[in-house]
Write a structure and sequence with these properties.
The structure holds three protein chains of three kinds. Chain B is built from 15 helices and two strands. By secondary structure, chain B is an all-alpha fold. Chain B has a two-stranded antiparallel ribbon. The radius of gyration of chain B is 26 Å and the shape is globular. Chain C has 13 helices and two strands. Classes of the chains: A alpha/beta, B mainly alpha, C mainly alpha. Chains in contact: A-C, B-C. The interface between B and C is large, with 109 and 125 residues.
Chain lengths: 256, 345, 270
């Protein structure tokens, strides 16, 4: 199982305009873990994610996926292993129809047309989008777009699923659907989010980023119990841990 | 014109494929969509108070380089023709040429790049964008005039047309120049590397580009001439004069031949040479006398006596028939629809 | 702005029509593209004074609208939008071309009016045919068909990207433009300066989006080639469709059917 380890060592990234987005990031994620990366706006979450499948090149440090160092030569393999779901599904759904979009990856991997057909059908059923098959992406709702975007990645059967803000902008029902989908994915999951309740519910581990550095790394209950840390990193407890402000149960005094 | 535009598209596609990296493909498409989006945003033109918006050809050339820009403009126009009824399929070939070729292959390399030189500054870029936009539109407008005249769609005299088109497009060009300059200088300030990369994307320099431009111009003139000759059957101004003077005669002749059942064969023989033997000198002929008779003096006298009332006669019956055909067409459509609905219900 | 917004809505409607299921919709796109091309050539190549010979060509759009169950009023409205443009091209013909070539009772009709009417008829036909093609086929399929018929792949792919992102970007710029309008209280602030920076920002955002899209493509194994995901077939119905219509168009191009019918009628009742 060790072959799907994600190892980030002293990762640094400085953008061409001089902004140091990542200063010194190190962590190891083992197979099957579900990790939430949280932090304030501009903490470096998205920059970090973009390194995981080689969309950005580190300016310092290294990344290994399953003991393979990430480099130009290993990129195709690593991109096949690491499935990346973007924040804005409109960036990811660029083909004329849902079918074409989900088939895009498998076709690039060189599967036969029959194989592709079967895969696409399976994956679309899995995300509950079978009926959207022949629709163009601009006729889909936000939740539908998100699920199809996930399908486009799942159709390549990745071993590691990376998602940037998966529940962003979804209505409660669509958010629930999505969370169930993520729960059912059996391999490694890494995602960033401001939806702390989702992180609490889905993750076995939380990494807190602050100004390009890792400030905390541990089980969610431990992290969300540390009010000082949360306040320093411009975060707060998930609503489900704050108690009910109407009936007065367990008011969240300690945040301020 | 269609052929030239299609040829240029093919050439540019090959060029883009060979020279530019993959990231250009989504970039071209998305920037094409951007042109639509940007046209939703208006601004008040300083002097007149009316509103203007971005045209797009030159700005694409500045951002993408000529080949990718030409393809992008072509695709924008194609979508406009198909969906927005802008110009229609008829004019698409010409439009691609006028709005794509001139800014991308003449205004951009020969004016814009020359003016900004090796060391671009914000002012230089603005001035260059202004001049190139105006020049590009003037060429485009002149192209429209030439094509319209050659195709024979409009009866406007050449000079009147030029006098009408050029000043209007000077105004449009100034507006386009202002807009392009302001957007380009903004981009230059915010992300200079974008414009630098477009400039560097063509390291070959001006020389081969000029050659290509000349080659295309030559091809344009030759093909354009041939195409319009074939398409319009109105090769030049003199021929039009004849067509005007003789009215519908020579083109109605084949149809006459059909209903004048006895003379079918004879008249056909008479008419076929008529198509190839038309000469300017014929303009002096009696305008109601069909050439068929002139070319074939042996034609029977009945033909001669019948023909004078032909132009009006044929067209009236033509109009009557036309109305009936139209009615029939819609009737058939109606029946088909009914049948279709019965079939599906 | 409103006009482009409406146009995009129309675009969506046209696109939805293409999802219909009729004998015409089911035909391979290449067949429809071919027939539309032949139709356009036959119509356009008519002489500028030709009017009556154009009438029989109306059978094609009318039959297609009926067979494909398209909303006729919607298509007519779309065609009517083109009118101002065509009128602008042809309006001077009657002024400059005053030779009377047709006498209807006491009214003389000049060549200019005939050629003007001819331009109108021609553009109605060709534009109508283009709309019908898109409404019964869908833009994507039209692109793929054109590619199958020899259009360069780069161009086809580029067209598809363009079409896809029109919807996203027009919404984006609609929002930006509305925001500016709301804060500019009438005229002030709508000038060239704010325009330049607004459009510039939009352009940069667009640029970044293109970069993200490229990233998304790379992330899914894109190596520069686009693969076809399905095979379409060009079967017997397609061949029949192409042959039948082309034969009709070519016949109508060389024989004035109106004239034939008209002379038959006027010949019967002199």
């Amino acid at each position: 199982m060790s072959h799907h380890i994600v190892e980030v060592r002293n990762l640094q990234h400085v953008y061409s305009d001089g902004t140091a987005a990542l200063k010194d990031i190190s962590f190891i994620i083992t197979h099957g873990e579900s990790v939430g990366i949280i932090g304030a706006n501009g903490a470096g979450k998205s920059t970090l994610l973009q390194h995981l499948n080689g969309s950005l090149e580190p300016t310092g440090g290294s990344i290994h996926i399953g003991h393979t160092p990430l480099s130009k030569g290993t990129l195709p393999d690593i991109r096949r292993t690491v499935g990346m779901v973007f924040q804005d599904p409109d960036d990811q759904l660029f083909m004329p129809t849902v079918y074409d979009d989900v088939a895009f990856g498998p076709l690039n991997l060189g599967y036969s047309i029959d194989d592709v057909e079967q895969r696409v059908t399976e994956v679309l059923e899995l995300v509950g989008a079978g009926h959207l098959r022949d629709k163009p992406p601009y006729h889909l709702s936000g939740g539908e777009k998100k699920r199809v975007a996930i399908a486009t990645v799942l159709s390549m059967s990745p071993d590691i699923l990376v998602m940037d803000e998966p529940t962003n902008g979804l209505d409660p029902f669509a958010r629930r659907q999505l969370m169930k989908l993520m729960k059912d994915f059996k391999h490694t999951r890494i995602f960033t989010s401001h939806d702390l309740d989702m992180v609490l519910e889905l993750c076995g581990r939380v990494i807190v980023l602050h100004e390009g550095e890792v400030w905390a790394d541990g089980p969610p209950l431990e992290i969300f119990g540390n009010s000082k840390l949360l306040a320093e990193c411009r975060l707060e407890k998930p609503l489900s841990m704050q108690g009910c402000p109407v009936c007065g149960n367990n008011p969240a005094k300690d945040i301020n | 014109m269609w052929a030239v535009s299609a040829g240029t598209i093919a050439y540019c596609s090959a060029k883009v494929r060979a020279e530019l990296d993959d990231s250009k493909i989504p970039l071209m498409g998305v920037l094409g969509a951007f042109i639509f989006a940007a046209q939703m945003i208006n601004f008040t033109i300083p002097v007149t108070g009316s509103s203007g918006h971005l045209g797009g050809g030159l700005i694409l050339a500045i951002l993408l380089g000529p080949y990718a820009a030409f393809l992008t403009i072509a695709s924008v126009l194609m979508v406009q023709a198909l969906f927005f009824a802008d110009g229609g399929l008829l004019a698409l070939g010409c439009n691609i040429f006028n709005l794509g070729f001139f800014p991308a292959f003449i205004a951009y390399p020969l004016l814009y790049k020359k003016i900004i030189g090796a060391q671009p500054t914000a002012t230089r870029i603005s001035v260059a964008a202004m001049i190139a936009a105006i020049a590009g539109l003037q060429m485009g407008a002149f192209g429209v005039v030439l094509e319209t005249i050659v195709s024979g769609v409009s009866s406007l005299p050449f000079s009147t047309f030029v006098v009408m088109m050029q000043p209007i497009h000077l105004a449009i060009g100034i507006v386009e120049g202002l807009v392009t300059a302001s957007v380009v200088s903004f981009v230059y300030k915010a992300r200079p590397e974008i414009m630098q990369s477009a400039l560097n994307a063509r390291p070959i320099g001006n020389h081969p580009v000029r050659k290509i431009v000349l080659a295309f111009l030559a091809a344009a003139v030759v093909t354009g001439g041939i195409i319009s000759l074939l398409a319009s059957e109105n090769p030049d101004g003199l021929e039009w004069a004849i067509a005007k003077v003789t009215g519908h005669n020579e083109l109605k002749e084949p149809e006459n031949a059909l209903h004048g059942s006895l003379k079918v064969l004879q008249e056909k023989i008479a008419i076929l040479p008529d198509y190839s033997l038309k000469k300017p000198a014929e303009a002096t002929k009696d305008k109601l006398q069909p050439e068929a008779v002139q070319n074939h003096p042996s034609a029977k006298p009945e033909t001669k006596s019948e023909t004078p009332k032909n132009p009006a006669g044929t067209t009236v019956s033509g109009l009557a028939g036309g109305a009936i055909t139209l009615g029939l067409a819609f009737l058939i459509g109606f029946i088909l629809k009914r049948r279709n609905q019965n079939g599906t219900s | 702005m409103a006009s482009i917004h409406n146009a995009v809505l129309d675009l969506k409607r046209l696109d939805l029509l293409a999802n219909g299921n009729s004998s015409i919709h089911r035909l391979d796109a290449r067949a429809k593209v071919l027939v539309t091309l032949i139709f356009t050539i036959c119509v356009v190549s008519n002489d500028r004074y030709e009017l009556t010979a154009l009438f029989p060509f109306f059978i094609f759009p009318v039959a297609m609208i009926s067979l494909a169950n398209l909303p006729p009023l919607f298509i007519m409205k779309k065609i009517a939008l083109l009118c101002p443009f065509v009128v602008a091209v042809g309006i001077f013909n009657p002024v400059f071309d005053r030779v009377i070539i047709l006498q209807l009772g006491s009214i003389g009709i000049s060549g200019g009016w005939i050629s003007f009417a001819s331009i109108m008829a021609r553009s109605t036909l060709t534009v109508g045919a283009a709309f019908i093609l898109v409404a019964s086929t869908g833009f994507t399929a039209v692109c793929q068909a054109l590619e199958g018929l020899g259009m360069p792949k780069v161009f086809a792919v580029q067209l598809l990207f363009l079409y896809r992102y029109i919807f996203v970007l027009t919404e984006e710029s609609g929002r930006a433009s509305r925001a500016r309008e709301l804060r500019s209280c009438g005229k002030k602030g709508q000038g060239i300066h704010s325009f330049g920076s607004l459009v510039g920002h939009l352009l940069l955002r667009t640029w970044q989006r293109a970069e993200r899209i490229h990233m998304a493509m790379l992330a899914r194994g894109f190596t520069g080639a686009f693969h076809a995901s399905r095979q379409s077939r060009f079967g017997i119905p397609e061949i029949r469709f192409v042959l039948a219509w082309s034969a009709l168009f070519i016949f109508l191009r060389f024989q004035n059917a109106s004239q034939l019918l008209g002379s038959l009628v006027t010949g019967l009742f002199p």
